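2024-03-11 09:14:02 INFO receiving multi-entity request
2024-03-11 09:14:02 INFO entity count = three
2024-03-11 09:14:03 INFO echoing inputs for audit
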Amino acid sequence: MSTEFEPKILAFVCNWCTYAGADLTGTSRIKYASNVKIVRFPCTGRIDFMLLLKAFANGSDGVIVSGCHPNDCHYTSGNFHARRRWMLFRGLLDFLGVDVRRIQFSWVSAAEGAKWAEVVNKTVADVRALGPYAEYKKAAKFLAGNEDVLLKAQEVAL
Amino acid sequence: MELKYIPKTSLKPWLEKVREGGKQIYAPVAENGKTSFKRVKSVDEISMEHVQTAQSAKGIAFPRTEKLFSYAKQQGDVALQDYDPGSLPNTLVFGLHPCDAAAFKPLSGIFNWDTGDKPFNERMQRVVMVSLSCSKCDPFCFCTSVGGSPGSAEGSDILLTAVGSDGYLVEVATDKGKALTEPHAALFEAPPDVNREELLARVPAKFSVDEVERKIAGAFESDVWKKQSARCIGCGACAFVCPACACFDIQENARGAAAGDRIRCWDSCGFSLFTLHTSGHNPRETQSWRWRQRLLHKFCYMPRRLAARGCTGCGRCSRACPVDMNLAEHLSELEKLKT
Amino acid sequence: MNELRSKVKALLGSSEIDLFVGYEQGTRLPRPLLAASAEDADKLIFDERCTGNLAVYLTRKDLMGGKKAGIAASYYALRSICRLIDENQLQDGATKIFALTPQGALTSLETIADVKQLLQETPAPAKQVEDAWVQEVEEMPAAERWKFWTGELAKCFKCYACRAACPMCYCTRCIVEVNRPQWLQPWAATLSNMEWQINRVMHMAGRCADCGACGAACPLGLPVHIIAHKMVQMVRQHFGEPADKGATLSTFDPSDKENFIR
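2024-03-11 09:21:47 INFO inference complete, emitting structure
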């Protein structure tokens, strides 16, 4: 059995563009990394930033967020709203020291089956190089009901 | 009460021997202008100069978050893993002030009222307290107004009092304390002839607590609560820094439907959610009712039911309050209440 | 000071207001005073030491329900009041607002237009300490930033003083109290403490007055206002001053520029 690290990637995509794009990847018989699990949303505007945090807390090593290109939103402006949110959210995570290299934001249209494969393959390769997101998982498990773990972590060094 | 003296130079060897004997040391450490209790490896890190730590020492027996038990579903059955005291560390709490040590009495009263609380009691059994008398105080301190003193040994196993800058008077108050000093007798000396009172901070009395307690027992319907609490913004800072506040919440850390932990965490009677019913009804609807509950609990219900007051005068609530709800000031006002 | 006292007394006396939110001398610093009588009004003070953001009281239903209120507003309280009016939490013109001019004179403001006028004339208080702190954190390598923030936020015991002190945190039901789904673990733990701050600051995007009340309120002295300050900086950098353009995250501009969506 291979012991090589296989990244777990969660993708949050919109129904109208990227999900359809990913479908096209399949119907076009384009092969791409199987590390990704896709969660379909009506629109990128619906993708709550907490979902990304929950993905990391629950064991994802990387996250993809993708939807319609600007001006192509099924609901006219959902992706514009999402873009603003990601601009601030990404900056905030970076400021807090969260590894933003593990989050791939993309625009993938329903016609870009090949681009979807590229996005996934690139993200998987990048995250594979970065290794498991151990720091975040440690924080998620940290103090799972046990104050003593915290005490130990805060211990003053000699 | 056994009286000894330990030179400052022997303090470190003593604590190090205690640590080698298998006890972790939990003591105040200064950091970024605040002092907090931490597990320390080196005695040099311990702060002896602060007036008050930001948080009390209660977390050693009543942690802010604690796992009570875990469960896992297994083929139609449930496997339960009960609270395991086996992994709890033996701890020497060092350098807490008399107001913190005294607060373990009301805490223990709450956790042993009716059914004894296993996690609290198991932790307390493994704790020995070496307190430090206060040689200074600040305007928020009011221990002397609620029956305490900067040199009180109540709740401590050992009480140290600084004699100049060279050493400490050592009062061994309990058998637990004796077990900590006797094996290291060589480090201790005979006590010098000093007037202990002169070594202590002078904490002026601000009100008569008996009078306060007499007045507030009949003040349930008074307007004073509304007036005093008007500026309270309803956060939990006062309760969380209080050494005697014991309100907690029980929560579920469910890992899917298959397994989970039951968690106990700190809560505060000042939160509007604290008494909110599922129906939407809230019996303590406004901040003034919650403020009244806070004071009546500490100065009326607890003295009656547990023979312990819910306040030791550490003043932390007043220091921590974002809107300066000064407890001693409010109690002084209650003392003068017309009945 | 006497001017404010007599004006407030007159307003209370003529029932133009029922309650005045101002400052009185506290244990060390000025503290909030909710004055309802002439006797209370005699305790009012208002000078350059009065910097706390009293706008937090204006949305408190148990205090303000059905009452006409007045306020002694510091620079940041004025900014918060503007936003609260924009967000329909306060009615424009319903609150008697007193503020200090840059020269230190007492002035009374009737409408949001008056408030904005004064804000324009008043130089914003310096934020050097906060700016320097943000810069210091930014200069750390990412791993060190993570260590710094998890170290600080591990100490948080979730008293929610940061939330209670914030004039913009007026929701009657906060996300931390929602348990279906349970977005945040309600007990104090490093990651959920951090998630709480991320939520708080994201919800503040373009709304935060940058008053620093959250950090000042923290009983453990955690630098949570620095995270909010960083958000203010980012909003300004990407979208300009948020004033008059609606809430940052509920509006958009097709020409918004980023460099990471590929």
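2024-03-11 09:21:48 INFO post-check: Chain A touches chain B at residues 143-148, 151-152, 154-158 (CB under 8 Å).
2024-03-11 09:21:48 INFO post-check: Confidence is low (pLDDT under 50) at residues 153-158 of chain A.
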